[in-house]
């Protein structure tokens, strides 16, 4: 059987939210470059965001320009507070190119322009949630509960290619909007990885979790 090397983009690592970054302490004064951003804590479960967290970075430092129109967002989260915050957003100035919003009873995926897709899936119920948002051209799908729940919607046009000067914001739509409060794990898989996985599963002829 051939060996496939599966890799993915750990968004939190790309944003510098990693274990070797020191957390603020009154006993020591490390350099500012080694400190976590305000409102951020690291735990075994993931990255904890509070209401005053603001994590933003140029898109080119987070995601590859070759991401294209086919990719999957793998999410693990535990919400501490019910609100309308974004899980993350990708913006060029005031224009939203892509984003995921967590409403009280729905997950909304924004695919650029004024296009948005609403899915009947709630993450604000004091439970840990793991789900995947899959972008395949004009089809947007969400997989939850290890594939037991699946929703798909069609959009009018494909997801825009992200501008090189766009910004990636974690836990908010922008600096003025409400913040997600809770624990986050976030990974993105590129089309190349997705195709490798499809070929692998065709070869082994078994089903996979999302």
Automatic annotation (TrEMBL):
Keyword Zinc part of the UniProt annotation: no
Record domain Thrombospondin-like N-terminal: where: 26-190
The entry's keywords: Repeat, Signal
Family annotation (InterPro entries): ConA-like_dom_sf, TSPN-like_N
SMART domains: TSPN
SUPFAM superfamilies: Concanavalin A-like lectins/glucanases (SSF49899)
Source lineage: Eukaryota, Metazoa, Chordata, Craniata, Vertebrata
Protein name, per record: Thrombospondin-like N-terminal domain-containing protein
